[in-house]
Amino acid sequence: VSHDQFEVLSNQAVAACAVVYFLAVLAHLWQWALLRRVAPAEVGARADELVAVGGAPVPTPPATSSGGTAPTGENAERAELFGRIGVALTAVAVAVHGIAVVARGLAADPVRVPWGNMYEFTLTATFVVGVGYLLLYKRFSLDWLSPVVPSFVLITLMVDVLLLYTPVVPLRDALQSPWLVIHVVAAIIATGAFTIGGMASVLYLVKERWPHTREGGYLARLPGLEALDRLAYRTQAFAFPVWTFAALIAGPIWAQHAWGRYWNWDPKEVWAFITWVVYAAYLHARATAGWKGRAAAIVALIGLATLWFNFVGINFFFGSGSQHSYA
Amino acid sequence: MAFTTKPDSAYGSAPADPAPPPLAPVELGRWAWRQLTSMRTALLLLFLLALGAIPGSVVPQHNVDSVRTSRWQDQHPHLTPIYQKLGLFDVYHSVWFVAIYLLLLVSLVGCIVPRLGVYLRGVRARPPAPPRNLGRLPVHRKLLVPSAADGVAVLARAEEELRRRRFRVVRHDGAVSAERGYLREAGNLLFHLAVLVVLAGVAAGNLFGYQGGVLVVTGGGFTNTLTQYDDFRPGSLFRESSLAPFSFTVHDFDVTFIRAGRETGMAHKFSADVSYRTSRDAPARQARISVNHPLTIDGTDVYLISHGYAPHITVRDGQGHVIASGPTPFLPEDDTFRSFGVVKAPDGLTRAGKPEQIGLEGEFYPTYAFTKETGPFSAFPDDKNPAISMLAWSGDLGLGAGGQSVYALDKKGLKPIKDKGKALRIDLALGKTQVLPNGMGSVTFDGVSRYVKLQVSRSPGDWVALLGVCLALLGLLGSLFIRPRRIWVRARSTEDGRNLVEVAGLDRASGGNLAGELDQVVAAVRPEEEKT
Which of B385, B380, B378, B374 is nearest to B339 (CA)? Predict the structure, then answer.
């Protein structure tokens, strides 16, 4: 297969996985629509159980209780079926997405890692979000995140293809370094994890704002505030050191090799630093009275906004002024 | 400023009543210190730091890209003085930005130093005795054993099991206390101290280091002395004597341009072959500099930054004497390496008995092409069909004033040379000569060399900064992933003569779940007969 054909394959795989993601979103929407019709009594029982989980002394981890016991009845069964279909479709979409990423790398001559520009970076970062979601699905019982992740990946992929698409080109000299793999892999993993944590933070804020919603609705079926906060914290506490490594260790070492200065206050560096500072503030805020919970979640979302602004916005607004203009 | 999971009290927290006390200087000072070192202030300062960094990405920064900054300043005559007052062209050295991070540092030190003391005392302390009511702890288990002897055996097994799990264990009368995860706070402290190390490294680089740029035409050389630099930015404590006495010659520069496909014209595989000496008497050594592979000579790094063309243009006077010759670096203007430059011929020409100087200004095209619509342009960045197209000026080049750019003509004393009423344009392909009107002489385009733009820099603190940031990461991992936790086991006799064993755990980090670990401990201490 020639390089050009791999590029075509990659583009087709992106289109195909977008369609499957869309079907997954539909399945999950149908699932949640059905769940609204599930008899309130069952939901009530379920809600009580969740409260009990929120209070600590229940020995079983929250994982089993929020995902395990399903409501009975025809609608409930069908809802569960659609939920399974949705997850299966998401898994298929992520697999096809993976093909798109790999083919993109094989399309270059010489073959290279598929993150030489913004389009490729976003393609890979969304892939990491999808993989992360599937990996954590069982462990954290993420069924409540199921409509959010495929929608996010789908929308981001659309933006990626519409606004950021670039044909395959060989890497510039400055990018031909082992640090491309180290620096960018770390940045992508951190971005994916921050994004998943941000989803939990958004849902935390929504649930915190409207605690008494219709029983059986989506919000009522989210895990308790404490569990949401914990998931947000865990993913972001994982992402923060990875980001520290990507932006403040691997990046400067590479910059020292390539540009002769380890820190140059390039717009991309400035915003990576801002992201780091905001997430540092998040970790501090979580341990400060008066900042726990709501305020900390808002800080985390500000951090996520600066992160994504850095990856997308910088190239639009500061393209020529940034030494990172390719990425 | 430090994150742990302990309550606010650990950080000299802001008191509940934020109003300042009456104006006794000592009290006021203490109050101010408490405010400054409180977590809230640290949070506020962190946000200010993030906000303060933003303008530096929006407004061009003088020490990042001085050319872009001057261009921006020319385009915005009204904003420039205001921005200058606010320090917006050099945000990261401006008073207010420095103030923010210095305050943050003070806040950090003010919070770390007391915590170091607390930690050093706490790290040697024995695990605390069990609380009176273990049933109130978040995770607890109960176990009934038949006799007091069994209770003692359970405690012995618990002690052994908890030691095996690398807890620090203390045996009390009828109870066992165990604790582990002391390194979380150590990691936290290490992280904050490492931030200071990073700053020390950065400061050392900024104070003692330097960075200079130099343009070398292939075949030319460079000696590491101040006069040889085109631009030079020293740190404030830099001494000229710290320049390493090396020199090098650039023999060749290679670049490959992609010839076909979508990415036609993209340059890659830059490399410069040099020979260098670490001092005047040292033997010459060969080396190759390319992007991502700088040359390091005695702790000074030489980087290949960019490249360009230096056409050889010879100017002769009316008698055929050479008055200017050799390679002249032209500055590339776009990706096709259409380049702009000037040639100055300061002496030799005369007109009406008065000495007259000559200047050329114009463009170099590595692969010359022409259409009616576009005029001359460069079709490809490689030197496949080099040509120059320049305007000629005569008069006073203004060289007497000194400090003149070699890339611009000072046209105050110059008049365009005209031929039949039109400004004379010198269009030359390689090897061709054009005669100037009125017997003024001639211009020849003899050849083309490439030049490289090199950056020479020394930043003495960079290893310290790297070490600091690695230590910070290590500390961060410890402070985020080590879970400090306590487990207590107590055996108590019940009314019917049996023994009730309570096992309870307290996770001192947020969000942890001790249930699994506690269940394992319970399983391990359970009497043998019950296990079956």
Answer: B378
Q: What angle do CA A302, A308, A312 make, to 5 degrees?
A: 145
Contacting B residues, span 33-72, partner chain A, CB-CB under 8 Å: 39-40, 42-43, 46-47, 49-50, 53-54, 56-58, 60-61, 63-65, 68
Q: Which residues of chain A make contact with B97, given a CB cutoff of 8 A? A: none
Quickly list DSSP for A244-265: IIIIIIIHHHHHHHHTS-S---
Shortest Cα–Cα distance, A152 to chain B (Å):
27
Non-local CB neighbours of A175 within 8 Å, separated by 6+ positions: A116, A326
- How many Å apart are CA B120 and CA B123, to the nearest integer? 5
Q: How far apart are the first and last CA of chain A?
A: 28
Task: Give the span between the Cα atoms of B173 and A72, in whole angstroms.
Answer: 53
CA-CA distance, B518 to B142, in Å (whole number)?
Answer: 11
Radius of gyration from C-alpha coordinates of chain B: 37
- Per-window interface: A 114-133 vs B, CB < 8 A: none
Q: Which residues, including other chains, have CB under 8 Å from residue B360's CB and lie 6 or more apart?
A: B313, B315, B342, B343, B345, B390, B391, B392, B393, B426, B443
Strand, helix or coil at A291? coil
Q: What phi, psi does B53 have (nearest 5°)?
A: -75, -20
Q: Are A52 and A62 in contact (CB under 8 A)?
A: no
Residue of A nearest to B135 (CA): A57
A139/B contact by beta carbon, under 8 A: no
- The burial class, CB within 10 Å (0-12 / 13-18 / 19+), for B381 is buried
Candidate from A287, A314, A321 with C-beta closest to B5: A287
**Which residues in chain B touch residue A319, judged by CB atoms under 8 angstroms apart?**
none
CB B449 within 8 A of CB B251: no
- State the Cα torsion B259-B260-B263-B266 to the nearest 10°: 0
Where residue A322 falls among pLDDT bands split at 50, 70, 90? low
| Closest to A230 (Cα-Cα) out of A293, A169, A187 | A293
> What pairs with residue B176 in β-bridges?
B171, B489
CB B318 within 8 A of CB B349: yes
**CB-CB under 8 Å, A274 with B53:** yes
As beta bridge partners, residue B413 has B396
Closest CA to B212 of B223, B201, B220, B196: B223
- Chain B environment of A243 (Cβ under 8 Å): none
Q: Give the residue carrying structure tokens 């402070």.
A: B479
Contact between B436 and B392 (Cβ < 8 Å): yes
Q: How far apart are CA A52 and CA A50, in angstroms?
A: 5
Does residue B128 belong to the interface with chain A, where contact is any CB pair within 8 Å?
Answer: no
What SS3 class is residue B31?
Answer: helix
Query: What's the whole-model pTM score?
Result: 0.82
Look up residue B427 and give its two tokens. Answer: 């269009």
Give the closest-approach CA distance of A125 to chain B in angstroms: 23
pLDDT tens, residue by residue, A119-168:
888 899 899 999 999 998 888 888 888 888 999 999 999 988 998 888 88
Rounded to the nearest 5°, which phi and psi values hold at B303? -115, 145
Q: Chain A neighbours among B 331-360 (CB < 8 Å)?
A: none
The token duo for B521 is 């401990």
Report how far apart, in Å, the C-alpha atoms of A88 and of each of A19, A22, A85, A221 are.
14, 13, 5, 21
Query: Is the separation of the CB atoms in B387 and B427 below 8 Å?
Result: yes
Contacts A–B by Cβ distance under 8 A: 154
At B323, the amino acid letter reads I
What does the pLDDT look like over B142-193, one tens digit per residue? 888 888 888 888 899 999 999 999 999 999 888 999 999 999 999 999 999 9
